[in-house]
Amino acid sequence: MCLALPSRVVERLPDDQALVDLGGVRKTVSIALTPEAQVGDYVIVHVGHAIGLLDPEEAERTLALFAELEASQAEASQPTGAAT
Amino acid sequence: MTTRTDYIRPLDFKQGRVDMNHGAGGRASLQLIEELFARAFDNPALREGNDGAVLDVPPGHRLVMATDGHVISPLFFPGGDIGCLSVHGTVNDVAMMGATPTALSASFILEEGFPLADLKRIVESMAAAAREAGVPIVTGDTKVVEQGHGDGVFISTTGLGLLPAGRNIGGANARPGDVVLVSGTLGDHGVAVLSQRESLAFDSEVVSDTAALHTLVAALLAAVPEGAVRTLRDPTRGGLATTLNEIARQSGVGMMLDEALLPIQPQVDAACELLGLDVLYLANEGKLIAIVAPEVADTALATLRAHPLGAKAARIGTVQEDPHHFVQMRTRFGGQRVVDWLSGEPLPRIC
Amino acid sequence: MKYVDEFRDGALAQQIGARIRAEAQPGRDYRFMEFCGGHTHAIARYGVAELLPPHLRMIHGPGCPVCVLPIGRIDQAIGLALERGAIVCTYGDTMRVPASPWRAGPLPNARDPLGGPDAQRQVRGLQDSGLSMMKAKARGADIRMVYSAADALKIARQHPEREVVFFAIGFETTTPPTALVVKQAAQEGLKNFSVLCCHVLTPGAIAHILDAPEAQQWGDAVALDGFVGPAHVSIVIGSAPYEAFARDYRKPVVIAGFEPLDVMQAILMLVRQVNEGRAEVENEFTRAVSREGNHAAQAVVAEVLELRESFEWRGLGEVAYSALRLKPAYAAFDAEKRFGLNYRPVADHKQCECGAILRGVKRPTDCKLFGTVCTPDNPMGSCMVSSEGACAAHYAYGRFRDMAPPRSLPVAAPRGGSGSGPAEPDPRQSPELGTCGACSAPNQIPT
């Protein structure tokens, strides 16, 4: 795997650096690979570099998909083919 | 002819450094002891100025002895330093036997060139920790090694404690059905220390949990019948996972933990994600694991929580029969997995 | 942690699990490979396998850059530190990967410097144990752990008098930061910095698993119904590179994030593709992966690095066009050129089954070495090297499944004997039971 986590950009710093926040932990990372990252954006950080931006709308869409599933599951009767 | 009074230039605790003379046993050694160690640790036994200390053992008690070597990088970290850590660590080792800690010894290996200002800060932190714990440092030793032969300062501490006759608390006493309690949040010390490593450098509000736990132990033992507390242990190096595996092996049992019940600070969780580390393997310096009989579990938990050092105590699992002595965990996700021994040193990962 | 915790919800996982069980047709088997170690880790750590139906099996692919790093490359890095006096900077992951035993012997250019029987005895003693970066460090090699490629560059600036080599490992995700530091070193005109480039590529390796001649030897056993595609690799390269693969091999690919709900959702999407006879690239990880990927990252990689014709993967052997090296314009920063290194492949333990396990033909417990001589503390093969390897994940998280559940009655019935009622299945032999923590057999867990 490549360990990488969505972190919020808190402040842009000189030399393509930025301060990011992950659940209260703050670290300075390079944003040379995501020059478009702005304060407030979520970037995906790997080995001290932001390698991509996280799209909040798409994240909501995926979560909504899970929720839909939950709703449909509630409506459905006992699932068939379940492991015993 | 006039008589000149001896004048010894006081140690320069601002700019001075440890040199080889401080360990040679002559005047310089004596001066370091008098101006720093004796002044900071001051107590009747130490004041005697002998090579050893004489201690009373009240009748009906046995002696418990525990020893610890302390090497840590960095020497100062959020929430503590090697000085208070060396007191807490040994006080806790004695307390985990169910004993009341009564005295400590301290042995210092100093590296030539170590700043006296840092040494003073460490020694004063140690003294404060010992005073707060009510456990005096009654004897000690200092040696100096050449530059490059040490990492600033190493401290060895030995503790003595009094164990009432008939008390038996140990790693081999856990039985199926017993309840596993932990006295507070996990991984705080490990994350506080890692945050200071130059190559990792991250900021968080996490501070080390380093603390002396003997009063917490005393409160717990007073609240439940003798024998109901089977095992006490502080999950230091290797963390909760390794400590529980040790107990499982010693007692010949298995354990089942519940991940959802583990007390973990959100920032510790985040730091672990960031570094690819598992909080179950990170060191704690102010937490204890108590394995107690099921019928006293509620009382024991309430007692821990009533103490300031156990406010976040939690019931995290149970002891079960298992010929393989596995520590297992029901995951928050609804699955099940082994919580294995630590394999090697926990290293930050990128993948 | 926002965008993390929401994707680890256990209750939702149960719902997706129920949906998978409802949609997976009882009459057929589903065999999916998750390529990435990140998925393997999530499946093992969260116990995802227990939520899947028994006829749906997850096979762990070779997607852990540490696991697939061949011994010969570790030997090169150790050699640079021990024999050439370089400071070797590395990510923590490689520190414990086993290297060759012979390296522990005398240095080739300083053979028997003392002469006499003492030196001989010393050499013989050392040959018994294999090295690793960590053990080499204990022998005096200047090996430093870094968290970022930029830290290696920093060390080079601090030690202008020393050669500083960055041991660069990882997939497409980890490559752009390496390319960035090489570019920066060139801009600064650093004279003492170089990179031992071991970056590998995923699409070629996925194809190799289906293509390799060894696959023929196992015949249908290697049949896979689809792939859970890389998460963070795809942030960089996008989803487009898998399209030709899905089309040519007629295998569905669903790119998924590394959180457990992502993995489960991807499995559901794969089941649906199989049921409907589709073989497309779908993207579950839309919050981070686009079709095109990260242009800035691709550009810096293209500027600094180029394809190797072939590269050895531990467990897979030589794989064509599956790795990168520095371009000639950056030759001064290429450790292989700078130090005139020759690559010498080193074979794994003879009984090691990693090659078959990586292809899903065998399971960790099928290997004679598993859990005996090969453990996470003493890994023999690639799958045991990192916690994401198929064997290590099973050993660390799932090996309780190999053991018969503790029972109160003494087990006296002879195993597999006839006429003695249902025999206690031996998980090490039965093909249906006792398998990898991350891959299957959820039906044997007592519930």
Automatic annotation (TrEMBL), chain A:
Entry-linked PROSITE patterns: HUPF_HYPC (PS01097)
* GO molecular function terms attached to this record: carbon dioxide binding; iron ion binding
The protein in question is named HypC/HybG/HupF family hydrogenase formation chaperone
Cross-referenced SUPFAM superfamilies: HupF/HypC-like
Q: Which Gene3D superfamilies has this protein been placed in? A: 2.30.30.140
Any single GO BP term:
protein maturation
Show the InterPro entries listed in the entry. Hydgase_assmbl_chp_CS (IPR019812), Hydrogenase_HupF/HypC (IPR001109)
Which species is the source of this protein?
Ideonella dechloratans
| Record-stated family | Belongs to the HupF/HypC family.
Domain of life assignment: Bacteria
One Pfam match: HupF_HypC
Q: Which PANTHER family match?
A: HYDROGENASE MATURATION FACTOR HYBG
TrEMBL record, chain B:
Q: Which residues form the PurM-like C-terminal domain?
A: 175-328
Q: Which GO terms describe its biological process?
A: protein maturation
| Top-rank taxon, per record | Bacteria
CDD domains in the record: HypE
Q: Which SUPFAM superfamilies match?
A: PurM C-terminal domain-like, PurM N-terminal domain-like
A family per Pfam: AIRS
Q: Which residues form the PurM-like N-terminal domain?
A: 49-162
Family, according to the entry, reads as follows: Belongs to the HypE family.
Task: Return the protein name.
Answer: Hydrogenase expression/formation protein HypE
Query: Origin organism of this chain?
Result: Ideonella dechloratans
Q: Which gene encodes it?
A: hypE
UniProtKB/TrEMBL annotation, chain C:
Region called Disordered, residue ranges = 407-447
The molecular function terms of the Gene Ontology recorded here are: 4 iron, 4 sulfur cluster binding; carbon monoxide binding; iron ion binding
Q: Which domain of life is it from?
A: Bacteria
Q: Which Gene3D superfamilies match?
A: 6.10.20.100, HypD, alpha/beta domain 1 (3.40.50.11750)
Q: Does the keyword Metal-binding apply?
A: yes
Among InterPro entries, the record links this protein to: Hyd_form_HypD (IPR002780), HypD_1 (IPR042243), HypD_2_sf (IPR042244)
Report whether Cytoplasm shows up as a keyword of the record.
no
Alphabetized UniProt keyword annotations? Iron, Metal-binding
Gene Ontology BP terms: protein maturation
Per the record, the similarity remark reads:
Belongs to the HypD family.
Name of the protein: Hydrogenase formation protein HypD
Provide the gene name from the record. Answer: hypD
